[in-house]
Amino acid sequence: MRIIVDGFGKSVTKRDNQIIIKENGKEKDYFLVKDISQVIITGKGSITFDACRLLAQNDVDLIAINWKGYLDYRLTPPEKKNVNVKREQYLSLLDKRSGILAKRFIKAKIENQKATLGTLAKSRGNDKKLLEQRDKLSNLLNKLNEISNSKSDIIRSKIFGVEGQASVEYWNGIKYIIDDYWGFYNRSKRYAKDPVNSMLNYGYAILQGEIWRAIHLASLDPYCGFLHTDKYGRVSLVFDLMEEFRQQIVDKTVLSLVNKKQFNLDDFQFKDGVIVILEKARKKLISSIYMKLSSHINFNEKEIKYSDIIVSQARLVGKFLEGKEDYSGFYLRW
């Protein structure tokens, strides 16, 4: 179970083995800590030291997402104790394991971009424009496969070159099916200038917290990436693994909400040069993303939740680094 603490004047406290949610000092709800997997704070409020301790003792994550749709911070339980995984993670930067993982993260991303465009094309009577964009991604996958396996420092720029071209073609396809009403002309990433980019940023912040939790459970170092370079304060491995899940979890959810007219322009506000989502719409978006994470799909011949696939993929990275299993990225075929 995930608890979302949204709005203002909220506080999180502890009572015995329970987490208590209060609003303006009055108790609104309570939950047994054993039933909680994550606490997400999206408004302004407070949390007691006792509540933090109880969450940590029970291996429960706490993340905070700010009004701009970025993950502000994450409070984690103590680090996992499998030091061998971290050792191999650092050593792999000196050999081809790092490059293999970097390529496979992007292969999975492009495959999911293809699948998303293919699904959209099929739902629109095999729309030619969307199929053309999907086929361009197939050609870029061939280019990615041609990159030799070497350590990531040597091949990173080539991988990002292919990834960048693929993203342009993918977002050109997505832009094609979004009504001009939304003013979505390209993927702007930070500092959203339109509602669709604002929703995407917020969705990716939620996904970032989910990926970070999985990497923690897998005993990996979130700051040591293979595709994304080391940079002070950047959780590079989190951004690496996120590439496999952006389309299926966030992009499809946002597109569904937009195309089914679940939002309108009045649900957004221009603040400090950035488009932000107002509270009612934000709650709907958060709920939709977490419903997707909790939904089951058929993957590797099993019915499994997206959230469990994320944990499985993080652990598979560790097994690959230790030489126990090969690594295959997560992607769905359309």
Describe this structure in words.
The chain is an alpha/beta fold and 334 residues long. It folds into 2 domains: 2-65, Ribosomal Protein L15, Chain: K, domain 2, CATH 3.100.10.20; 83-321, CRISPR-associated endonuclease Cas1, C-terminal domain (Four Helix Bundle (Hemerythrin (Met), subunit A), Up-down Bundle), CATH 1.20.120. The chain is built from 10 helices and 12 strands. The strands form 4 sheets. A 4-stranded mixed beta sheet has the order 1-5-7-8, sandwiched between helices. A 4-stranded mixed beta sheet has the order 4-3-2-6. A hairpin with a 2-residue loop joins β2 (8-15) and β3 (18-23).
Topology of this structure?
Blueprint: E1 2-5, E2 8-15, E3 18-23, E4 26-32, E5 38-41, E6 44-47, H1 49-57, E7 61-65, E8 71-75, H2 83-91, H3 96-123, H4 128-146, H5 152-177, H6 195-217, H7 236-242, H8 246-259, E9 268-271, E10 274-277, H9 279-294, E11 296-299, E12 302-305, H10 306-321
Parallel strand pairs: 1-5, 2-6, 5-7
Antiparallel strand pairs: 2-3, 3-4, 7-8, 9-10, 11-12
Concise structural overview:
With about 325 residues, the chain is α/β, with parallel strands linked by helices. The protein contains ten helices and twelve strands.
